[in-house]
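ingest -> validate -> predict -> emit
validate: passed (alphabet ok, no gaps, 292 aa)
predict: started
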Amino acid sequence: MSSSFVVWLFDLLARLPLSVLHRLGTLLGWAMYRFSGRYAERLRENLGRVYQDVPAAEFRRLLNASVTEVGRSIAELPWVWRRPVPEVLTAVRQCHGMEYVNAARNSGKGLIMLTPHMGCFEIMALNFAAQWPLTIMYRPAKLTWLDRVMREGRQRGHVTLARTDIGGVRAMYKTLKRGESVGLLPDQVPGNGEGEWVNFFGRPAYTMTLVGRLMESSGAAVLICYAIRLPHGAGYDIHFEPISFTPGTSVALQINAALERVIKTCPEQYLWSYNRYKVPNGALPPDAIKEQ
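emit:
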């Protein structure tokens, strides 16, 4: 598949109203669930471990809603990535916690924004970068045809992309040194040597340590940021929430605890199908570390 064809297709789909794309996304979500065995198995497993004690009817409701929301998160990408930014931002209905953003920016020490795989995380950077510079960590897509449309969709407004390599990490440090803002996906599995095994919903998950290093070097504030998808294509509500860190305790562990709290406010829109507990190439699994 050529990248030019994908761009054309995304441009065509972007003409549809968001409500229509979300309805199509519902169908897409269920098609993926029915015909992708490994994906469906991981979604059920991850969701089931966290909500194993809820009544069967409630678990079925959560599972059905999660399947639907995954499809919607994919179907809305053409609308978010290919429509003009001002049009996309008209879908943002409310921004909660802007006082935390303003306080961080006024401190002059920079801001670290952590956006989990929850809701429409793609709109977060566009919304923020409509006003202020933002450097976001970016892992190139394995599929060339997808990488082009992803880069073009994300690098708009005042957004700068920093690859997930040593050059990208240096760009993050420099950005914070200038008192500007950076964005990361805190629940994305890092490469070997770039994380530590800490609990996430009761299971060891390899979690990035970069946030702690960035905090230590810059004194930047840290906020969890997420955009909740509203029903019937009505748009998104954006939230900014601070994290209070306890000295002497793993920063990665405290971030995971904060993520758990946020995810539980809207579990239907978390990406439970993501392989959060995988072992990166070259890394020792948590059981092997305990035996040493």
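The chain is about 50% helix and 15% strand.
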